[in-house]
Amino acid sequence: MIDSPATPRLGIELAAIEKWRQEKAQALEKSLVSLAGEEQELRERLAALQRSIESNAERQRTLQREQASLSGQVLERSRKALLDALLADRALVEARSAALQELRELAVVELKKRLDEPEVASAIEEYEKFREVEPVLGSLPPSYRQVVMDHHEALKARLEPLFELGRGPRAPLDLEPAHVMLAASLEATGGRATAFALFLPIDHQVYRGWADRPEDLAAQFAYRVVAGVSQALEQLGASDAPVVYQDFSGCISIQVWLDDHDLDADASGTIGDALCKALAGAPELGMARLGVEVAWVDPEIIGPEEEGEQERGAAAFADADSEDDKRLKPVQIVLRRGGSDHW
User: In this predicted model, what pLDDT tens digit does every residue of 9-53 receive, in sequence order?
Assistant: First the structure.
């Protein structure tokens, strides 16, 4: 009997190779599965990063838009701050004006009451008759003239409290001192002043209906400001500059066109000094315990706040149809030539 030959060496080698192949295939498959999982994870992370990039880009665009609108926001906030300050100061002026008017009306009531007293009425009649004899006092004998004068001075001293009532109250209001603002702005081109605007914390009705309202604190305040502006224009050599009074959210604005004049002095300094001088020592402001400050603001802040108002301002000037005028800033649109001064 012949024994089975041993397994050929080649077969053994091939079997080993097959085993290696299987093990290698399994290892590769495992690695591929792992890498595929890693790839999926990376893709998910990449997608998340892409979404983050897009979100970041959108946030950047939002911030860039906000950055681009920042100057507009500053302008809007500044305009609101100006308007709020004017309206708050206007309310303060009106409150103190009402308080002063109440004192004056009480003084009038007291004056009328005193005038109705028979002794006072008789004394006033005698005081007024002195005017009839005053022209001929020089022809009287000195001793007689002195008697008449002494009697008149005694009568005058007796009536002095009545005269004081007639002059109205002079004591300041029993209130804390406060300050109100005059907002001023100067438009300049090439270093030359071309337009000036001043905003008063005064109801525009003081200008519109001045003949039908009392000469109260608000009216006297406005008159002094107008006097200060007129004085400044005279000092600047622009006394004939067009002046227009406009309604700025219920307050008075005074607007002056200066581009037709070669100014003789520093415009803002001259205007500020003239306003301070016109208001310094004003008795009605002292009684109301009100101080006044001039606040200079950028011209862009003081443009008309609505389309209709801007058009009304422009219509006040008839001869401003050139292309140059159409390019003027808002503050200048209501300062075109041809206006008139109604005060």
Answer: 888 999 999 999 999 999 999 999 999 999 999 999 999 999 999
**pLDDT band at residue 121, thresholds of 50, 70 and 90?**
low
Instruction: Please tell me whether residues 185 and 329 are part of one structural domain.
Output: yes
- pLDDT, tens digit, 9 for 90 and up, residues 248-278: 999 999 999 999 888 877 899 999 999 999 9
Full strand arrangement of the beta sheet holding 243-248: 243-248, 251-257, 192-203, 178-189, 290-296
Task: Please check whether residues 126 and 254 belong to one and the same domain.
Answer: no
Closest C-alpha among 203, 224, 216 to residue 104: 216
Pair (43, 110) in one structural domain: no
Whether the CB-CB separation of 342 and 222 falls below 8 Å is answered with no
133 and 105 assigned to the same domain: yes
According to the model, what pLDDT value does residue 245 have? 95
Joined together, the tokens standing for residue 316 give: 């006040």
Average pLDDT (107-133) is 68
Which residues neighbour 93 within 8 Å (Cβ) at sequence distance 6 or greater?
180, 201, 202, 217, 218, 221, 288, 290
Residue 205 token pair: 């009705």
Indicate whether 19 belongs to any domain: yes
pTM of the model: 0.67
Residues 141 and 190 in one domain: no
**Strand ranges in 123-227 using DSSP code E only, listed in sequence order:** 178-189, 192-203
On the question of pLDDT at 162 being above 70, the answer is: no
Q: How far apart are CA 165 and CA 111, in angstroms?
A: 6
Mean pLDDT of 54-82: 94
Pair 135, 187 in one domain: no
How many domains does one find in the chain? Answer: 3
Residues 203 and 245 grouped into a single domain:
yes
Whether residue 90 lies inside any domain: the answer is: no
Please report whether residue 244 resides in a domain.
yes
